[in-house]
Write a structure and sequence with these properties.
two-stranded antiparallel ribbon, 193 residues, alpha/beta
């Protein structure tokens, strides 16, 4: 994807009524997953080392349930969305998503974004890529979960946890835009212009 077409801060949640199938066998929309204080949308998958971990990085997936619990305590919804359409027949199939959710004991909805429609509307780039919307469905944070990927960091910064705390306290989100880190979302390439 050329240029930065990532959803801008303050913009309204796009495709809030897009129906997506979940590993729970139900159909969900972002609207249906909203809580009184908003919604956290994390583009995720079954395969990226930034999600599932590697020899030198634990992967952010290990934090999902804990972050979702904190979000729930602050009346924020939390959802994982798999937009890896190019891997849909293999590692990112619904069957493999169900297996992954069971194996990792996900406590949160994990949805299929068919045709990467939601990812395209958000301008989501990586797995993971986080988008946090407030109670008015306006974007108040976009970027990384934290800075643990940065081997040169001088301190640990828990971006998403800080956003959850700010929203829970009714205060303005401080750091609201960080670079997403992860594997590129595997969209199906279209031919032609």
């Amino acid at each position: 994807m050329k240029g930065d077409n990532t959803l801008g801060l303050g913009k309204k949640m796009p495709k809030a009524d897009l129906e997506m199938d979940g590993v729970d066998g139900k159909t969900h929309t972002l609207n249906s997953l909203m809580k009184p204080n908003g919604l956290i949308v994390v583009f995720s998958c079954n395969t990226c080392p930034f999600v599932v971990g590697s020899d030198d990085f634990p992967g952010w997936e290990v934090q999902y349930n804990d972050l979702a619990k904190k979000a729930t305590e602050k009346e924020l919804g939390f959802v994982l969305v798999n937009s890896n359409e190019a891997k849909r027949e293999n590692a990112d199939s619904m069957e493999e998503m169900i297996n992954r959710a069971k194996e990792k004991e996900y406590t949160i909805p994990y949805l299929v974004d068919k045709g990467s429609l939601l990812a395209d509307a958000f301008g989501a780039k990586t797995t993971p890529h986080v988008f946090v919307f407030n109670d008015k469905k306006k974007l108040v944070y976009r970027g990384s979960i934290d800075n643990s990927w940065d081997s040169r960091r001088t301190e640990d910064l828990s971006y998403l946890e800080n956003v959850i705390t700010s929203i829970g306290q009714g205060s303005k989100v401080g750091l609201n835009d960080t670079p997403p880190r992860g594997c590129s979302i595997k969209r199906v390439k279209t031919t032609g212009k």
